[in-house]
Amino acid sequence: MNNYFLHLVLMFCILSFSIINALYIIFNNKTNIYFKSISIILIIFIIYISTFKEVFLPFLGSAAYPISLIPSEMHPVHTNFSIEQDFYYPNGTKIIYWAANGTKEDDVYKNPNDAYGNYNNSGVSIVNNNKAVLYLNCPNKYKIPSGSTLNKHIHYRIALPNNPILSSVKTIFVNC
User: Of 41, 81, 129, 161, which has the most beta carbons under 10 Å away?
Assistant: First the structure.
């Protein structure tokens, strides 16, 4: 079984169990007001943290990675799309980006594994004067396990100079 799926299921169970217990405390006539108040705060907190994708998909959060292993600048050899994006980070900051593979047709991939393949549609750009240009092939749409289709987009992480902590995964939606 996939570890990410296991984590997702366990987090869902833990949060559901916590909410059920909090509701039991709130609606139990024998519980004093102090515990009912704490239970209400707990439910609000659970709903709040459930809105963060990193709670259920931890690989999307910040990550440690040796900065010396990240190339200075690279992109796919033959590209048909570029986007200049504002990045308000110091000069020399590296933007590590990747997108679904692009095909000549406007196909929709059946799943993320097929869409990204070997991650050939990826690169590294350097921030200069708060801007970086990302060169790649226009990505295709793809379906996720829930069945919905994600529009064309680029994922990226920020690698600040002399800092081994990469940012969480961020996304730019594109029209190309």
Answer: 81
CATH 2.60.130.10 assigned to 63-173: yes
Structural contact between residues 131 and 84, judged by C-beta atoms closer than 8 angstroms: yes
Angle between helices 33-49 and 3-27 (to 10 degrees): 150
What percent of the chain stands above pLDDT 90?
52
Residues 10 and 100: their CA atoms lie apart, in Å, by 29
* Res 3: pLDDT: 72
For the chain, domain boundaries: 3-60, 63-173
**C-alpha–C-alpha distance, residues 93 and 147, integer Å:** 36
Mean of the pLDDT values across residues 100-105? 79
Q: What is the mean pLDDT of the chain?
A: 89
